[in-house]
Fold:
Amino acid sequence: MDSLTHIALGACIGEAFFEKGFGKKAMWWGAFAQSIPDIDFISSFWLTTSEALLAHRGFTHSLFFLVLIVPLLSSFAYHIHKPRDISFNKWFIFFTIEVSVHLFIDAFNNYGIGWFEPFAHDRFSFNVIYVVDPFFSIPLGVAFLMLIFLNRYHRKRVQWWKIGIIIPFLYLSYCCINKIVISQKIQEEFSRQKINHSQFFFTPAPIQNWLWFVVAGDSSGFNIGYYSIFDKTRSLKFHYFPRNDFLLTEISDHENLQRLKRFSKGFYTVSQINDTLIFNDLRFGQINGWTNYQNKFVFHYYLSHINNEKLLIQKGRFSSFTMFGIQSLIKRIEGN
Structure:
């Protein structure tokens, strides 16, 4: 999830864990603990684009990092607040919960998380909820603000931390149910349309959980489509994208390209404009792809030779999510 959501969730968990006995300091400790795994963002200042992609949600989101950081945070907080007679064990349980929740919910969107780094490089992603989903985050944000402004002894503080924790996780459960329902419909469509595939995934389109992005293919290419739970017909319209691996022949051994392939989990295509190659990571969908299947993919990278030795990689920019984009998304969610 996004950083602001983690901060709000951490604060609500902190309030729930310590309640009135620790005042609002519990909120700030919770927000801090929930933010710790995201310190990996600083690596982008010195790593190449391809290295930074794998560093994000890598080691600092691993179970090994959890084992290392929790005792350090617990010891630090214990010595700072020793006069309050909060035991080391209580701090240990608190930080374990906070960091574990961060690692758990980040796995529900499609970026992937390296739970077993640095011993194994597998990325886990459940593809259940979009990385920024207002229906998950807004109750948390409102609860967070109320907890900030309410007096530490106010009787409604319990009510607000419950809203901040229970409602988002009820919504997450609803998203899981949506995924199960969508999965059955997609499998029926694969069978009906005789779409053979060796790999496939489906994940929510941006900022909601009713329209889903579907990708199925093999080493030759991919069928891509969108399916809304409100679609009035069973038919799922696919468009085919060839992988075009042959375009990468001359740079196939380059480290940056290998990292991009690893990050994409094999869900990629290659296109060419003049002498520039474009590596498209399919997992993050297209920019307003529900309106035009030829639109650019959100995560795309420009590959070009420099002195026939180096490979320059630049991350493609997001197009603005305009009012037209929002209106077209709502219209597509309503059904075909």
